[in-house]
Amino acid sequence: SAGRVVVVGGGFGGTACARALKRADARLQVTLIEPNKTYVSCPFSNEVIAGLREIEAQQFGYDRLAAAGITVVAQAATAIDAQKRRVTTSDGTAFGYDRLVLSPGIDFHPEALPGYDEVASETMPHAWKAGAQTLLLRRQLEAMPDGGTVAIAIPANPSRCPPAPYERAGLIAHYLKTKKPRSKVLILDAKDTFSQQRLFEQAWKELYGDMIERVALSQGGRVTSIDAATKTIVTEFGNYTPDVANVIPPQRAGRIAGVAGVADATGWCPIDPVTFESKLVPNVHVIGDASLGGGIPKSASAASAQGKAGAAAIVNLLAGRTPEAPRLTGVCYSTVAPGYGFSLAGNYQPRGDIFAEVEGGATSPVDAPRELRAREATEAERWFQAITADCFG
Ligand code: FAD
Questions:
Q1: 77: Cβ below 6 Å to ligand 1?
Q2: Which residues neighbour 46 within 8 Å (Cβ) at sequence distance 6 or greater?
Q3: Contacts of residue 25, Cβ cutoff 8 Å, sequence gap at least 6
Q4: Which of 36, 152, 160 to probe ligand 1 with, by most ligand atoms within 8 A of CB?
Q5: How far apart are CA 372 and CA 41, in angstroms?
Q6: Using H for helix, E for strand and C for coil, what is the string for 134-193?
């Protein structure tokens, strides 16, 4: 064999990487370790919450990866021995590697938001990992009486998909306007400004009038603790007891990154942006949300681009060649109502220890005819078809 590569995490980053490795060199032994038999996609899960789409449209399996010659192991990675270059899974099996790729996504910071834990998430869902949480939030919206308040608590950056909480606010408002028009969406935000703010605020006004209210950081919007027993959200300036509480907590790299020793004090993983190799542990590469990407927003688009670029670097490293500096492109669509979307496209290149945005990016114009918004909503659907086909086959 041309080498053994183990990939941990079968999300957008891990699947893109595993497939690109196998495509680049069929002799590579590629193993993908992922505990879930079905992946549930976060992109477009806000549509599920708003009742515009069924969860089945979000689900993808790993059969096509197996058919491509990738060994798919339905276990969680539980330990990594960087000296012996070995990953152990929950059933005790050990997998040796020449290079290890970690794409575990995010986990929540247990101390960052006092009172918010697994149990609290059963009544105050985050829905920041798609699946049961997505459906729970949808059911809570369906059960809420007309005239109720839905609060969305948004953390500071870095966090997974910075525009997605605002997309969610719009789509929830769409549901409420259609089914429960006296209701409100209250955004409690740990940020003062956010990506594509003018586009979002203009769309909210145009589509939903005063239905969406946002309390920014400087107005006391940062959530400081949660009392799950009374379903209370505590902010710097006051307490809120909304009918539905969607609490998106502060995040860090998926737990296994800490176990592997590749996460630093920020909770994220510093990497060499040319090879995605960890700055802390040799022969371990980190891609996707878990990595410290600098200017590159944490998105499925970025994770899959990083997966492919990381695969190319690993193939070169295994062959004793010098990897080339990658140029990554990412595009993020936000849909604020059916047929109303906009986008943000960026290009990124290594600069020092991080990725920096370079020329060639584009954002949808603030003043644009509805026809363009409709076209971008269609393009968003096409993007989803393409990226899921690319990653899962
Ligand atoms: P993930 O896709 O989360 O995959 C991580 C995988 O690792 C999981 O399958 C997990 O089970 C597995 N794993 C974790 N620990 C272990 C372990 N110990 N052993 C084995 N496996 C493990 N991005 C976009 O580009 N466009 C969008 O429109 C968009 N919309 C979004 C909407 C919402 C509501 C949210 C929350 C996110 C959205 N995103 C979007 C962001 C996107 O979902 C993430 O950036 C992307 O999933 C990151 O890919 P990843 O591979 O890093 O992590």
A1: yes
A2: 164, 167, 168, 171, 335
A3: 2, 315
A4: 160
A5: 26
A6: HHHHHHHHHHCCCCCEEEEEECCCCCCCCCHHHHHHHHHHHHHHHHCCCCEEEEEECCCC
Q: Is the pLDDT of residue 1 over 80?
A: no
Alpha carbon distance 170, 330 (integer Å): 23
Query: Predicted ipTM?
Result: 0.99
Separation of alpha carbons 176 and 188, rounded Å: 18
Kindly state if the Cβ of 39 falls inside 6 Å of ligand 1. Answer: yes
Q: Which residues pair with 341 in a beta bridge?
A: 335
CB atoms within 10 A of CB 51: 16
Q: Tell me the CA–centroid distance for residue 218 and ligand 1, in Å.
A: 30
Q: Please state whether beta strands 212-215 and 184-189 pair in parallel, antiparallel, or not at all (unpaired).
A: parallel
Written as six digits, the tokens of 293 are 């990407």
**Could you tell me if the CB of 43 is within 6 A of ligand 1?**
yes
Render 51-114 in DSSP notation, one character per residue.
TSS-GGGGEE-SHHHHHTT-EEE-S-EEEEETTTTEEEETTS-EEE-SEEEE---EEE-TTTST
pLDDT digit string, tens, across residues 28-74? 999 999 999 999 999 999 999 999 999 999 999 999 999 999 999 99
